Amino acid sequence: MNLPQDFRQFRTAGGSQIFRIPLEAFPGFWVNTYLLMTGDYQVLLDTGSGSDISNQGILDGFEWVSTKIGKKLSLDDITHIFITHGHIDHMGGLVFLKEKQRAQVGVHELDAPAISRHEERMAMICSSLDDFMQDAGIPLDKRHDLLNMYRLTKSFFHSVPVDFTFENSGMKCGPLSLLHIPGHCPGHVAIRLDDYIFVGDHVLNDITPHQSPGRILPYLGVNHYLQSLLKLNNWVVDYRSILTGHDVPIDDLGSRTSAIEKAIQKRLRQCLLFLEKPNTLSALTDYLYPQISGYNALLVLEKTGAYVEYLCRLELLEITNQKRLEESDQVPYIYHLNHERADSFLTKEEDYVFI
After folding, report:
1. Between 20 and 30 A from 161 (CA), which of 138, 263, 266, 299?
2. CB atoms < 10 A from the CB of 218, how many?
3. Is 248 in contact with 206 (CB distance < 8 Å)?
4. Backbone phi, psi, residue 353, to 5°
5. DSSP assignment of 214-266
């Protein structure tokens, strides 16, 4: 369950101040944005969804920060806006903010089109999603309903110029250093300020972060995500706390990433066991996530699609109806366990997934 965090102040080993501002991105769905005050840099890290209540939350947060620092702080005081990744609950408030001030907007190159060419990117993703759902075995009317829900959550946003990109800036801006960690989102980054690390949605406390198949966008998928977990663990040393995009700080990154890897391993094993008998991605999703409806139905379908894509990449699953697929583009994929390769993995309880 997604619960709101409280307003909270942190101070880094170098004396920089961090303020956590919780925002209700959508009804009952909360996200954290952070204001970083370090030297001449006043950095807003993520911006909420752009809904009226989310935008008001930013203003309320600045009022709270003003009381903590003992002087009036306005949106005009922001020097930079960093976007950890190009999902609407983290970037949507840019429209509201850019109408009121001129902070420099920075994002990773792979997620820049989600901001600066939003309408074009949406059209491309919706086309890919429709093809993906058809191949999964989702009926036409349900596909239309899910795509309409997908578009609705992005309706607050329109294209906003990006001022700089992270790779082009050497993955550093003033006292902030960055690491590209794709998987949950193509251009997802982790950001370090002294002994505090911001990980957006790449690592969360209570859930396994959402995955989508790489056929929808490059640099998505389980393979990229697992590689990025390893990359993040190697990059993060001598830290005090890991600050996330939705929940409480993480004190032990290694333990949390290990738990996430085990949760993914469990789901992958469930996929293999279910597909000992040939079936569609839609049927597998219903088995893994029964009685899920609304927008969450699309999310669990994407996550299951990411698992199946990964297992196919490892040749543990195979498509059994290639001939019918050649004859018609209206036929869903039928997946089946590749016993020759998968049986040895199914005899193990864990630690059978490799990158």
Report:
1. 299
2. 11
3. no
4. -95, 130
5. TTTSTTBSHHHHHHHHHHHHHH--S-SEEE-SSSPPBS-HHHHHHHHHHHHHH
Q: Are strands 196-198 and 241-243 parallel, antiparallel or unpaired?
A: parallel
pTM above 0.85, yes or no: yes
pLDDT computed for residue 188 by the predictor: 98
Task: Determine the residue type at 217.
Answer: L
Q: Which residue, 99, 148, 93, is CA-closest to 115?
A: 93
- In the chain, where does the domain assigned CATH 3.60.15.10 lie? 8-112+160-262
Task: Quote the DSSP letter at residue 20.
Answer: E
Distance CA 181, CA 200 (A): 10
**Domain 266-346 carries which CATH code?**
1.10.10
pLDDT for residue 349 is more than 60 = no
Phi, psi of 82 (to 5 degrees): -105, 135
- 8-112+160-262: which CATH topology? Metallo-beta-lactamase; Chain A (3.60.15)
CA 319 to chain centre: 28
Quote the strand ranges of the chain, DSSP E.
8-11, 17-26, 29-38, 41-45, 80-82, 104-107, 164-165, 172-173, 176-180, 189-193, 196-198, 241-243, 317-319, 335-337
Distance CA 320, CA 328 (A): 15
The answer to whether 73 touches 58, Cβ cutoff 8 Å, is no
For residue 201, pLDDT beyond 70: yes
